[in-house]
Structure formats: C-alpha cells, structure tokens
Design brief:
- The protein is mainly alpha-helical.
- The chain has two domains: 34 residues; 124 residues, Cytochrome c-like domain (Cytochrome Bc1 Complex, Chain D, domain 2, Orthogonal Bundle), CATH 1.10.760.
- The chain is 48% helix and 4% strand.
- The chain contains six helices and two strands.
- The chain has a two-stranded antiparallel ribbon with strand order 1-2.
- Helix 2 packs across helix 6.
- Bound molecules: heme C (HEC).
- Heme C binds next to helix 3, helix 4 and helix 5.
Length: 171
C-alpha cells in the first residue's frame, strides 16, 4: 500500500516539476520576444531640432495595435493606397513640407493634414482629431495613442527595414 501511495506521489511530483519548468520557459520566451527590439531601434526623432525619444516596447505595441485598427486600411505596410507616392517611409516623410519624419510633425499632420507641399489643407479628406465629426475613428484615439502610432511609424524602418513602405522613396 505504502508503495502505491509513494509511486503516485512521485508521479505527481514529476508532473508538477514539468509544469513549473514549462511555465517558466514560456514566460522567459515571451519576455525574449517582447525585449527583442533593442533601444536604438526604438529611438525616433521627436522634433525637427534633432531631439530624439526612446519609446518603450509597450508603447510600440500600443502604436502597432492602434495603427492596425485606425490607419492600416489605407497605410498597410507603410504604403498609401490611394496615393502611393505619399507613403509613410522615412525619406518621403522627411521631404514633405513641413517635414513629417518626427513625432511632432506627424502629430501635426493628424491635427492639420496638408498636401505634400504643405500648401492646402486635407482636413476634409484625411482623418484628423479636429475633424473627428467626419472621421469617427479618430474619437477612439487619445493623445497617448497618437504618440504611440507616430512612434510606431517612425520606428518601423529600424525594425523591419525595406518591408516598410518598400524601403525607397517615391518622391
Ligand atoms: C481613408 C484612408 C486613410 C486613412 C484611414 C489614414 N490615411 Fe493617412 N493618408 C491617406 C492618403 C490618401 C494620404 C496622402 C495624402 C496626399 O495626397 O497628400 C495620407 C497621408 C498620410 C501622411 C503623410 C505622409 C507623407 O509622406 O507626407 C501621414 C503622416 C499619414 N497619412 C498618417 C496616417 C495615420 C497615422 C493614420 C491613422 C490614424 C492615417 N494616416 C489614416 C489616407 C489615409
């Protein structure tokens, strides 16, 4: 009898140890995936005077999720469906007037979108926080979300390289 109990206990112990080890390994793997993006790849221009900001991995993930739900229908993989020349690649953003290749420039676009030459307002054509009456998707995005989206767009070339907006500028 005592042997039976002992063997059951031993088996239970083995199962328990295997479970604990696999849980530990799983969480280690997860943190390795989340921590994969090194800080230099998460560092993006903040404004056009050369200041930079390093986003947290958490912010990047928030940016990705909000980008996918609010922007990707037109900007999948950093392209622009109805105007492929004006994509979200770094060089294209840099050559816009005013430059959009930094967080502040991008946030400005999401408030006052303009044509690529900066001459005309696109407020009635492009989603912006000012016109959330005609673009309801903008109502779900708070300031943190917009910052995270801008950071995500600017960090993507560091993270996936040429897969973002095809790598090279079209204008
Ligand atoms: C309904 C389609 C649509 C949606 C949704 C959309 N965009 Fe756009 N976006 C465009 C188009 C079209 C252009 C090019 C406008 C032009 O002709 O200059 C553009 C241009 C831009 C530009 C300027 C790019 C440059 O190189 O100067 C930025 C930045 C931008 N979008 C960011 C966003 C973000 C961020 C979101 C999500 C919050 C978003 N867009 C949602 C269609 C869209």
């Amino acid at each position: 009898m005592i042997y039976v109990i002992r063997s059951i206990l031993t088996k239970a112990l083995v199962v328990y140890i295997v479970l604990v080890i696999s849980t530990l390994m799983f969480s280690l793997m997860n943190s390795a995936i989340a921590g994969e993006i090194i800080p230099s790849n998460r560092t993006v221009p903040l404004n056009d005077s050369g200041e930079q900001i390093t986003l947290t991995t958490q912010e990047l993930m928030q940016g990705q999720s909000k980008f996918n739900s609010s922007c990707a229908q037109c900007h999948i993989d950093g392209g622009t469906k109805t105007n492929p020349d004006v994509d979200l690649g770094l060089q294209t953003l840099a050559n816009a007037t005013p430059a959009r290749d930094n967080i502040e420039g991008m946030l400005d676009y999401l408030t006052y979108p303009t044509t690529y030459d900066g001459l005309r307002s696109l407020a009635e054509l492009h989603p912006s926080t000012l016109r959330s009456d005609i673009f309801p998707i903008m109502r779900d995005l708070n300031e943190d979300d917009l910052n995270a989206i801008a950071g995500y767009i600017l960090a993507q070339p560091n993270i996936i390289g040429d897969q973002w907006a095809g790598g090279k500028p079209k204008r």
